[in-house]
Amino acid sequence: MSNIDALKKEIVETVQAANDIASLEEVRVSALGKKGKVTGLMQTLGQLSPEQRKEMGQALNRLKDEITAEIETRAALLKSAALNERLQKEKVDITLSPRPQGKGTIHPISQTIEEMIVIFAEMGFSVAEGPEIEDDFHNFTALNFPPEHPARQMHDTFYLPDAPDKKGLEARRLLRTHTSTVQVHVMQEQKPPIRVIIPGRTFRSDYDMTHTPMFHQIEGLLIDKSAHMGHLKGCLIEFCRKFFEVDDLPTRFRPSFFPFTEPSAEMDIGCSREGGELKIGAGKDWLEILGCGMVHPNVLKNCGIDPNEYQGFAFGMGVERVAMLKYGIPDLRTFFESDLRWLKHYGFGPLEQPNPALS
């Protein structure tokens, strides 16, 4: 038995001395392998008497189990040490900027919104923002939508569970269908004169080549005591000529209908479709670009402004639509597909100014 104790001590010391998994595996094989020391002793059991065989067999089994446990414990420590060493060598300082793998670009929607803001800022407009989750009053009622208007229906609007409003009453909530809701907030919170533009995301239940469930709009609102339709037309004509970089851009205004403006109009710009190519400017064709009109007296009343003292105009257009026209982007859905190849082609450099009229 003293031989077994000495063997155990020798093997354990060898296990503890192993400094990597490969060395530990060599120790395991030399002790427990087919030609190992413990295996060799077990092969001699047949030469012993039954009593001796029983005692020696039990002792060798204990020795085998103890050595196996020692090897497993040592292996766990070595693996943990190896992992820590690897982590130290391969660690990355995330507080540092990553190595640039390519040139980043600005999305056409962001670029278009910035261009539009700059143009209207030159006319004295400031930027206003508002919530994307709205109530029925701000999205429809305050803007003179009648209760039976189709835009209120479920198939056009994303409705959310009702929630208490500021007065504690249950209010119907929804994702805003237009940025005109911010006009209501502005008129409720500011006293005229008001001159703001409102860029932002809007939501409608529609999806095809020219419609997406989420898209961007930009609204304009001007309220004072002397605004009239001529001011509206001059403002929009100047904007379109600067944005599309066509000094003699033909324009026209057609009568239309919107619940929140009276009179209402749609603005067209001249274009040519000769040879199957759309070119904005002088031509035989027209292209609808935006909707506009004088703010309806009911809207002013709903927002706490006296329509006998103040009047104004409003307009709105889709950001993606004008971006598609200016930069030749054929499909609206590609704006939201996160294709880096598309963004590399249509994107803008951080210091690039694509509109010389704004420099």
Count of helix runs: 11
Going by CATH, the homologous superfamily of the largest domain would be Bira Bifunctional Protein, Domain 2
Helical content band:
25-40%
The separation of the N and C termini measures 96 Å
Describe, in short, the structure shown:
The protein contains eleven helices and eleven strands.
Tell me what you see in this structure.
By secondary structure, this protein is α+β, with helices and mostly antiparallel strands. It folds into two domains: 89 residues; 251 residues, BirA Bifunctional Protein, domain 2 (2-Layer Sandwich), CATH 3.30.930.10. It is 39% helix and 22% strand. Strands 1, 5, 6, 7, 8, 9, 10 and 11 form an eight-stranded mixed beta sheet that branches. A three-stranded antiparallel beta sheet has the order 2-4-3. A hairpin with a 5-residue loop joins strand 3 and strand 4. The longest helix has 41 residues. The chain is elongated.
Features:
single chain, 359 residues, 8-stranded mixed beta sheet, BirA Bifunctional Protein, domain 2, alpha+beta, 2 domains, elongated, 11 strands
